[in-house]
Amino acid sequence: METKVNLKGLPQQELEKFFVSLGEKPFRARQVMKWIYGKNETDFNRMTDLSVPLRSKLSEVAVIKSIKLVERLKSKDDSEKFVFELEDGERIESVFIPTKERQTLCISTQAGCPMGCLFCATGKIEYKRNLTAFEIIDQLIQVGVFTGMHGYISNVVFMGMGEPLLNLPAVVDAIRIMLSDFGFKMGARKITVSTCGLPEKIRELADTGLRVKLAISLNAPTDAIRKRLMPATAKVEDIISAAKYYAEKTGRWGTFEYVLISGVNDKIEHAKKLKELIEGVPAKVNLIPYNPIPGVQFKPPDTKTILRFQAYLFENHITAIIRESRGQDILGACGQLGQKRNSPL
């Protein structure tokens, strides 16, 4: 039995090739993309601007799949976590973060994560596999539908489960659909790819020409501290070099994410070394107080320590923002995804 082709997740160029293989004109791809991404349509028979014979043919050779929602949790701060089950039984999580200014969705790119960062719950989950472009883009579709915000989610951050740059081909395909006039029509500056810091992959992303924003999870100003927190890590000097390349290639300022952990990386001496490390790099710093996870003895610093760290960076002309943690009560905050709960949908 011949396997039907899932059209959701195919970027425009690939979808055009598919229609040409059926003896159709390439513009059919644009029509179908509007139905899939604009209207969340999964039934070819309801695509009324296609001929009846073409609709019949598509029903025979193609399909438009959806990932399955199995759990939805709402925080007291109005953020929401969505747990999706994939066809092979693996589960992934997405977090919807609404504010007055924007509607942001944090999406996953892998089932599990191979990086093993000590402060991250996902790093404790066994890595299973990369997600497909379909499984990535459908998080945006399904969360939009369930929240009533389909087509209105303004920002996407690749900061969920997994290391996006280890799944770069699928991530790039998903981004192209987000940017497409026949997909989600998003601007590149509304999309952020976060990475643990893989220098060659950062350069590879820069060379795609997509010009999305880049966030690097730095978390330490020295190799020794970083190696302790992030075992699968590159040297900080190589990461900084790649960050400069990305900024020069794309014209985008970057962001260094810095999870503050009490007694580990939160002293003024760490702030001084951080300043020396990133001075001259066109980037800001997001300071993220550590979000507790079970089985890990780390703690966030007290408010005074956090403000002192921020003040030192400000005094040395480095933009440093303290990022508000959202969704802690539903295990949806930074570093908390993948923990088990017993809250049914």
CATH superfamily of the largest domain: Aldolase class I
Tell me how many strands there are.
Answer: 14
Oligomer: single chain
Rg from Cα = 21 Å
List the strand order in the largest sheet: 3-4-5-6-9-10-11-12-13-14
Mind telling me which CATH architecture of the largest domain this is? Alpha-Beta Barrel
Description of the structure:
This protein has helices at residues 12-21, 27-38, 52-61, 133-147, 168-179, 199-207, 223-229, 236-250, 268-278, 303-315; strands at residues 5-6, 62-63, 68-74, 80-85, 91-98, 103-106, 110-111, 129-130, 155-158, 191-195, 213-217, 254-260, 283-289, 320-322. The protein is an alpha/beta fold and 345 residues long. It folds into two domains: 5-63, DNA polymerase, domain 1; 68-330, Aldolase class I (TIM Barrel), CATH 3.20.20. The strands form three sheets. It has a ten-stranded mixed β-sheet, covered by helices on one side. β4 and β5 (91-98) form a beta hairpin. α1 crosses α2 (27-38) and α9 (268-278) packs parallel to α10 (303-315). The longest helix has 15 residues, at 133-147.
TL;DR?
With 345 residues, the protein is an alpha/beta fold. It has ten helices and 14 strands.
Describe this protein with a few key phrases.
DNA polymerase, domain 1, alpha/beta, disordered C terminus, 10-stranded mixed β-sheet
